[in-house]
Amino acid sequence: MRIGIIKETKVPEDNRVALSPQEIVDLQQKFPDVEFVVQKSDIRVYSDEEYALKGIRLVDHVDDCDVLFGIKEADIESLIPNKHYFFFGHIAKMQPYNKPLLKRMMELNITFSDYEYLVDEKGYRLCAFGWWAGVVGVYNTLRAYGLRMRTFELPKPDKQFTLIRMQSEVKVVELPALKIIVTGNGRVSHGAQHFLDEVGIKQVSPREFLEQEFEFPVYTVAKLPDTVCRIDDESIFDREEFHSHPELYKSNFLRFAKVTDIFIPCHYWGPEDPIYLGKENLRNPEVKIKIIGDVTCDIMGSVQSTLRPSTHKDPFYDYNPCTEMEEIAFSSESNVTVMAVDTLPNALALDTSDYFGKALVKHVINDMLRGNTDESDVINRATILKNGKLTERFAYLRDYAYSE
Ligand SMILES: NC(=O)c1ccc[n+]([C@@H]2O[C@H](COP(=O)([O-])OP(=O)(O)OC[C@H]3O[C@@H](n4cnc5c(N)ncnc54)[C@H](O)[C@@H]3O)[C@@H](O)[C@H]2O)c1
């Protein structure tokens, strides 16, 4: 078997890779009959030379590979018939912009497994970057705070940035008595909490956050049901009902917004779910929040100052609550500064590639190289196309794939 690592082609560029040079060396020792090749790339976090130095073959074309691993969607023009591809496809939620990709993979008899659906039997994701998004989300947001207040300047992450570096940069900064709120309690929120803990910001309970003043920076985590309540009876919260009938619930976030300096949304949001910070809230003079690090990056979702995603190159913009329009970052004290980068983990491409590669080897590649691809429940659950045909689990994509 020959396995290829394909080059990333999406814009803005993604520097992450599915397998680091060391990961490939370790796999080759374990499976000497398998060959790994790496398609040349000048944007990858590990350079071509780093792979070559470990004896890994660099190639221009990956036509002679059986299985191909990428990170983001493969370039349609580069797709090779009859191969097995792995990447984040963004097609299973019927995203309109990726319909041509699905169609082309069907035409070319491709087998396609989507990382997003590599889950255990309980549906828990096995290869996800969310935790890292929380980490970078906090760093970027604190960076925005320093720039806006002109009190400190954290460096913009470059391609070689690491989590350790981010932490050490923030640790030397003296933060005032800020109140920071993180919402949600999933992977992203846990990454955010980890970073805040590591840089010495004290966690307090939502109640303490609401009722007390502190002489040092603090953060709280507002989970369900802290942030929502029922429309008709504010004392009742039924989690199952909330998820099946979100229209019966409203936001209870305003009480937090009145005492918060920095808001880092990390909760899942669906179009029917309560809006935490609507346009009127953002105009409300009682709302104290002036910096929002919107990790969820739902455009005009639960935080309505998020007008568009931003990029690592240009991560911040201002939202003018009166005009409801975007303005240049840090241009007015009455504006809200927004950080809404939608590819946050890419700022730690070294750490995240290593983390992702280890998970991939453990849950996918070991089984595959032992010849168990067809029997692997993890791979089967993530396989959207088998030889160009939709699998049973993803059969619902048929109309989407064939519609004009
Ligand atoms: N900006 C980025 O680069 C980036 C990267 C990864 C994930 N994300 C986004 O971050 C968000 C969270 O991802 P995750 O991996 O932590 O998800 P997760 O499923 O691990 O956690 C989601 C959390 O939100 C809570 N929740 C669910 N429905 C809710 C609702 N209607 N209202 C309030 N809370 C609700 C859950 O209880 C849980 O605590 C997602 O929207 C995801 O797309 C962004």
TrEMBL record:
Give the residues annotated as active site. Answer: 72, 90
**Which Pfam families does the protein's record reference?**
AlaDh_PNT_N (PF05222)
Kindly indicate whether the keyword Oxidoreductase belongs to this entry.
yes
Q: Name one GO cellular component term.
A: cytoplasm
- Which residues are recorded as binding NAD(+)? 268, 295
Cross-referenced Gene3D superfamilies, in alphabetical order?
A: NAD(P)-binding Rossmann-like Domain
**Name the UniProt record assigns to this protein:** Alanine dehydrogenase
